[in-house]
Amino acid sequence: MSNKEFTISQGTKVDAQDFRNTVLKYACEILQRDINRVTTEKDADNTIYLTVDPQAPVDGDDFQITLASPDKVTVSAKTSLGVMYGALAISRDVLKIDDFWYWMDTVPTIQKTIQMTNFDMHIPDYQTEYRGWFVNDELLIRGWKDHDSQRYIWQRVFETALRVGCNVIVPGTDVQSQINRNPAKEFGLMIAQHHAEPLGAKMFAREYPELEASFLKYPDLFRKLWRDAINEQKGTPTIYSLGFRGQGDKPFWEDDTSRTWDDKAIADVVNGVIKEQYDMIKELDPGAPMALNVYGELAGLYKKGLVDVPDDLIEIWADSGYGKMVSRRQGLDNPRSPLLDIPNPHHRKRGLYYHVAFHDLQASNFLGLLSNSPEFVSSELMKARSKGLDTLELVNTGNIKPHVLYLREVAKTWVKGYTARSNDEILDDYVNNYYSEHQKEIVSLYEDYWKSVVQYGTHSDETAGDELSPFLIRRIIKTWLGGKDKLSDAGWIVGDDSLADGVKKIDGMITPKLPGWEELVLNLKKLMLNLNQQDAKTLYGDLYLSTLYQADGLKALHLVIQAYELSMAAKKDDDYLKPFLLADEAYHTMDEINFAQSHHKSTKWYDFYKNDGYDDMPLTAIKLRFLRHYLRTLGDTADEDDWERRFIKAPGEARVMTLWTTARELSDDDLAKKLRERLIDKL
């Protein structure tokens, strides 16, 4: 071995200067685990030593890797986080462990021993100072265990965030974020806070459930929550989020009816609260960075010149929820105000809250891929950078696994010199990294995904994610069976139309897209039969399920609309036969999604989707099953035996009335199967 080589083997021990430093402890555990995974033989005993060194010849969180002697490599940095980055650099660049190994189930290349020859590794030259993940709407993660542990999963969340270059994290939502705050810090991550949870304080309504959540009525109780939160976090790496929305992610005045709220009155409260929070932090945790989320209604106040806050806050501006740098639609209000050209007269630093996953219970993506392309996201982020919105970036990761394609590319945009990339560039890079064969075909299938999405609005970026279909199906059934004339919560897509006109409008949007989705599902199934086992598992979880949510969801929605329109035109009992069968087909189509999730090609992920309470495909299937029986009730007899007798039984059997019947009525499932068989040429 030359004096510029270091042999990594089963004999290599990762050691640290001080295991009481939890960041060094976890860095040791991760690197030791990875060495043990990729090597099979023991060479000479040697050491990789991790140390915090105030004299290290590096800046910030950079690190230095030194071959100190033939049997010792030293990873040193001025900060614990820098040492962590150094350990992960060896894992990535020397051991070839993929940054998303946990979420993509990548299989590392196994070698007897590994020769380390490159010691000149450093963190990238980042343009974005604060780079963070916002693990938001984390229902799937919350309802799942791996290694029979939630703790293990969150540790992998923190590890992956660090691997891609994060130094900041919002580790969940509401109670979850408070539970995970200290574990995230133990990995070296700075804590930021949800825009609905100022200062990371506990929710007023949780602490005082019997009281009205009014700052005007109970200012001292709010102040106590804020002060307690600062005292709990002071002295630790934290970016405090200032502001005041209310209880949960909604405006405070919706819960405070003590007065009439105009813009000036709202702004006076918000400005006063922010100044109080600011002064508290200056008193209790001086020097800590602070941020103001200019989100939702606050953006409107800002543009009217009503926001008056200290100038050393970082302003955080949010995209539309679908990746476009315009204001978010709030119900029927959709001004699409451009966010990139808003004047900055106070010259405050600015950053982004950006969605690659989103939940708005309407048309966004929760379970699957963003409905706007990676190329679109790359372009929007570079537009934001050109306007100086790059001091802090929080990326809504959702549940991480469905969104790796975007999270991987977003991490690349944080580095100086990045330029916007095309779909071809992004997909070629991604597919070649995660698939070992048929890469061109796989790239083509990914491209077909974005060609197939439904556009629900007049703007090209107003495209529908996986939430659209279950959201609308449940509302159509509720409105239809409830005898109402207007779809609830759907004015953003159907305007003021009646139910009949609204569903016709929706069907006109989705029907032209159905053949494309059906073809994409078929092509994915064909390709998975020809892929090796590892690639088939990857494609199943990474693209097939996302496609199925869209294809089967939209098909079920189309079938429900057909059933509704035929049912509304029914003049006799038998006119409900076809709507009954359409509802049956919609139910089984939606249930295919539930089956596909629970029969994942990788047993690790088969129960990952069980806690989906947003798309809620299981509830949607239940609603469709209920609709099916409702239509049978309208068309069949009270004893539910007429359709069976007239359309299924042999004529002689149907006419024998001695015992009336010799068995119970058929179930909806069995009746639908037999009716479809007998009436296939008649309906």
TrEMBL record:
UniProt-listed GO biological process terms: carbohydrate metabolic process
Keyword Nuclease: no
Organism (species): Lentilactobacillus otakiensis DSM 19908 = JCM 15040
GO molecular function: hydrolase activity
Keywords assigned by UniProt, alphabetized: Hydrolase
Stretches of the chain forming a coiled coil according to its record: none
Lineage start: Bacteria, Bacillati, Bacillota, Bacilli, Lactobacillales
Pfam families: Glyco_hydro_115 (PF15979)
Annotated protein name in UniProt: Glycosyl hydrolase family 115
InterPro entries xrefs: GH115 (IPR031924), GH115_sf (IPR042301), Hex-like_dom2 (IPR029018)
